[in-house]
Amino acid sequence: MNGKTTVISQAQLDTQFAYCDKIAAYWLAAGRTPAAYVETYGCQQNEADSENIRGMLKECGYEICQEPEGADVVVMNTCAIREHAEQRVFGNLGALTHTKRRHPEQKIFLCGCMAGQESVSQRIKMSYPHVDGVFSTHHLWQFPEILYMVLTSGRRQFYVADEPGSIAEGLPIVRSSTLKAWVSIMYGCNNFCTYCIVPYVRGRERSRKPEDILAECRELVAAGCKEINLLGQNVNSYGKDLECGMDFADLLAEVAKIDGDFIIRFMTSHPRDASRKLFDTMAAYPKIAKQLHLPFQSGSSRVLKAMNRHYDREKYLDTVNYAKSVMPDLVLTSDVIVGFPGETQEEFEETISLIQQVRYDALFTFIFSPRGGTPAAKMEDPTPKAEKNRRFDRLCAVQNQISEEIHSGYVGKTFRCLIDGKDKDLLTARTEGGRLVRLAGEDSLIGSFRHITITGSTTWSLTGSLAD
Ligand code: SAH
Ligand code: SF4
Ligand code: F3S
Rounded CA gap, 55 and 420, in Å? Predict the structure, then answer.
């Protein structure tokens, strides 16, 4: 393993388990079962981290509850990707002064990506005295220790030292679903796209060992899991820091070789590193969903260069064309940023034309949000906000029309789908490409793969009925 990655040792983990035991004993002596609430913001990586936080809380004797009111512990697992995400957290954190007033024993923690920013921990120190602890993603595995210190020392705890990052295997986990699982295969990011805060708050890229990932996947499948989602900020650079001779395509193939009826998805792929080998592997294994989330960010090669994306419009289109050539039914989704500093009207039109050329099933659209400490935040940005909003609305309208057209093309076709839950009176299912289908049916169907014929469509979802 590359020297920069610290693997948390068993002895270090044992220390944390010992803190769990002490906290459980503390509550036993208090004569009641404590409750904990975890709120998650941001991406799947945070969802996955929250499952570990819940696991550690359970190990400490807490029951997981569904609202902050009355909880003994509240954990806000936060996202720093855009200013709006942070404002929401500060707003909700402010509201916790009331739950704490009604339950003065309540201990409040802020963690996740926002906690990796010095400015945020300073602001919490100065202006949010009701917050008892702050810890960045690097210190997640130390949560039992942090909680113990808060409970017993009466002092606020800040575990926010900046670090290149570590890997902790074997943390306790409470998964949100038995059907679908998040499996982080790597952490951090080395790409430093000029607009993005992630490398600053989640540290350098580090890969879990293939044997640890495969063991986790095997265990999940044996326990009845039907969908495995492999997670990383840039899964295509998996393994570069390990000396195991395995790249992401190899790992994907190994997961697909596990016996059992399940489907594999992954995100996110960086277009620079998305190789032909990856697409050939996807095409070769029926268990790998023919779904690709390949963020393009901008259709202009000049803007892509300013974003430090390391590909241009032509290379991106070549990549997509190859992927579609080996997987004709590929469902493509992407992320795009409107109003990057200095984006001209013509450059924005290039984004529109790329969308029209590729025809994504769905897009995640964002207006550029300057993030302190990133190079783009210092770039000149003469485009007025109102103009950015106009571009954003136009882009959404173009994409909605395309999504609607693609979705209406599904009507009359039959797809094998995983029926995964319920929304009001209808069952919900996902096609292999990840599109949402609603259908009538018995609850007992949840958890099974069934063939569903699509009977109707909207911009965002499909309706269907059982074909078999
Ligand atoms: N690692 C993933 C994306 C992580 S963030 C990748 O590289 O694709 C998810 C999306 O948020 C990004 O793809 C980008 O479109 C958007 N985003 C990131 N930083 C942003 C910023 N400062 N302003 C607006 N959107 C941003
Ligand atoms: Fe951010 Fe770029 Fe890394 Fe994605 S690849 S997390 S956008 S720096
Ligand atoms: Fe947000 Fe952190 Fe994910 S900044 S998007 S929660 S990696």
Answer: 23
0.90 cut: is pTM over it? yes
Ligand 2 atom with minimal separation from the 196 CA: 1
- Rounded to 5 degrees, φ, ψ at 2 are -60, 140
Q: Which amino acid belongs to residue 445?
A: L
Name residues contacting ligand 3 (CB within 6 A): 42-43, 45-46, 79-81, 113, 197-198, 202
74: β partners? 37, 108
Sequence-distant (≥ 6) Cβ neighbours of residue 23 within 8 angstroms: 60, 61, 144, 147, 148, 151
Assess contact for 241 and 188: CB atoms under 8 A. no
- Which single residue is written with the structure tokens 């309540």? 106
Distance CA 431, CA 120 (A): 40
Q: For residue 403, give the 3-state DSSP assignment.
A: helix
Q: 4 pLDDT band (50/70/90 cuts)? A: low
Cβ-in-10-Å burial (0-12, 13-18, 19+) of 8 comes to: middle
Is pLDDT of 3 > 50? no
